[in-house]
Amino acid sequence: MVMAFVFGIIHAFMPGHGKSILVSYHLGRRSRLVEGITTGVLLASTHVGIAIVFVLAGVAVISRSLAAGGRAPAFQALSAALIGLLGAYLLLRTLWPPLHRHVRDGRMLAIATGLVPCPLTTFILTYALARGKLAMGMAAVGGMLAGVIFTICSFAVAAIVTRQRFLALIGPHRRVTAYAWWWLELFGALGVLALGLAMLTST
User: Fold this and answer.
1) In this structure, are residues 185 and 62 in contact, taking their beta carbons and an 8 Å threshold?
2) Mean pLDDT, the chain, as a whole number?
3) Is the N or C terminus of the chain more exposed, i.e. has fewer CB atoms within 10 Å?
């Protein structure tokens, strides 16, 4: 379990896993640290959880929507489209702010990003099932998930702290701070939108 946890931390540092999307979002939105942790947990849990469901349901064997290596092109395209739509929504909300702000869009974005199943989880569980050691495979996946959560939450929290410190450096000037808030929100929304479109064109 300890080895799986450490491996999960390292694995989540590799490209993918939605880190850039969460960082773009939290750099562009006023968030508390608990919201960064929440979005990180939701993203990682969805990413690994949907792969577990696939394997346990036997989709990895019987469905044509799954390609080799545990990839799911249909879900990748759906995830990319949802990320792009949420990025467009964040952009519109920045340009035409509503009267009341909601924090649920970050959670929706985290779940949409996590819709891409984790190929490594699929491989581990498929191998465990073939060897008749499902419990051991689930334990390994559980340890890995904890490591992935740790890494992704660290990126989200780091983005929130960076934003807070940047705004603190600006000083008490309300007008300057208001402009900084707006530009950070704008670039954060554009970042999410661009990442979603890039994912969509690459699927």
Assistant:
1) no
2) 77
3) N
- Rounded to 5 degrees, what are φ and ψ at 38? -60, -45
Report the predicted TM-score, pTM, of the whole model to 2 decimal places. Answer: 0.68
109: its two tokens: 């974005």
Residue 117's nearest CA partner among 71, 78, 69 is 71
Q: How far apart, in whole angstroms, are the C-alpha atoms of residue 65 and residue 71?
A: 9
What residues contact 136, with CB distance under 8 A and at least 6 apart? 128
Q: What is the dihedral of CA 142, 70, 153, 138, to 10 degrees?
A: 0
User: Per-residue pLDDT averaged across 87-99, rounded?
Assistant: 68
Nearest C-alpha neighbor of 47 from the set 119, 134, 106: 119
Tally Cβ neighbours within 10 Å of residue 69: 9
pLDDT band at residue 2 using 50, 70 and 90 as cut-offs: confident
More confident residue, 114 or 44: 44
* Residue carrying structure tokens 């989880």: 121
Q: Quote the CA–CA distance of 87 and 21 in Å, as a whole number.
A: 10
Residue 11: closest CA among 139, 113, 154, 120: 120
Mean pLDDT of the 6-21 span: 83
Rounded mean pLDDT, 29-45: 88
